[in-house]
Design brief:
Blueprint lengths: L1 H22 L3 E5 L2 E5 L7 E2 L1 H7 L9 E8 L1 H8 L9 E8 L9 H11 L3 H4 L6 H11 L4 E3 L3 E9 L2 E12 L2 E14 L2 E10 L3 H21 L2
Antiparallel strand pairs: 1-2, 3-4, 4-5, 5-10, 6-8, 7-8, 8-9, 9-10
């Protein structure tokens, strides 16, 4: 009897531990030849998986950038798997690298210079430059989507740290006669000598949307930096 109880307790502990690991599993990726550990951007976000990453989320990334990985709430991933939507998700997140800089070592001094040189044109730093919206719109059109992306408008800075800088933008997806406004919180992060761009996208409801996203992005940024010390 005692052995049976011990076995049941052991199996229960093992099962609970497995569940906790599954919920808190980090994603390991490579950027510039270096293995990085990326936690999920929020507790209710799940990694998109190879299929959706290559067939959906990569279409939302300008060619100057390379998508590292993507996340979204389970209900949003379910929409994608059912083929119900591509661009106008209510919430999702992505991490990208600038192809031109992916294999370049970035020192603390170089990172600060990178941020200073961007100045108010931070959108240019992360590949949201002239022509980007035309490129992404062409991709969506080729897939038969009646969705048109508008060029982002800079809202302002969110936070600045030694190895991270974040700002917010607003953009819109035009679907027929309807325009869906999206808030985008972007962090430029120096991680193990590499530069990452972390994005959180949410449907814009009010200024509080940007405020809450800013807090979310800062917590995610801090977690990325801690995981990769």
């Amino acid at each position: 009897m005692a052995r049976g109880r011990v076995r049941r307790i052991t199996l229960t502990v093992f099962f609970l531990s497995a569940c906790l690991r599954a919920e808190g599993t980090d994603t390991e990726v490579k950027a510039g030849g270096i293995v990085l550990t990326l936690p999920a951007p929020a507790v209710d976000f799940k990694e998109s998986g190879d299929k959706l990453t290559t067939t959906v989320f990569e279409l939302l990334v300008p060619s100057v950038n390379r998508l590292v990985t993507a996340w979204a709430p389970p209900q949003e991933l379910a929409k994608l798997n059912e083929g119900k939507t591509t661009a106008a998700l209510d919430a999702y997140a992505m991490v990208e690298v600038l192809r031109q800089l992916e294999y370049e070592d970035c020192t603390p001094e170089a990172f600060q210079q990178l941020v200073r040189s961007a100045g108010p044109s931070t959108s240019e730093l992360v590949g949201v430059g002239k022509g980007m919206e035309e490129e992404l719109n062409a991709r969506l059109t080729s897939l038969g989507q009646r969705t048109e992306l508008n060029r982002p408008e800079n809202v302002g800075g969110i936070f600045q740290k030694a190895d991270a800088y974040a700002f917010a933008t607003l953009t819109g997806y035009k679907q027929g006669d309807r325009v869906v406004s999206m808030a985008v919180a972007t962090a430029v992060i120096r991680v193990r000598q590499r530069v990452l761009f972390a994005y959180i996208f949410r449907k814009y409801e009010s200024p509080d949307t940007v405020i809450s996203m800013g807090k979310n992005l800062e917590a995610w940024t801090d977690a990325i930096l801690v995981k990769n010390k």
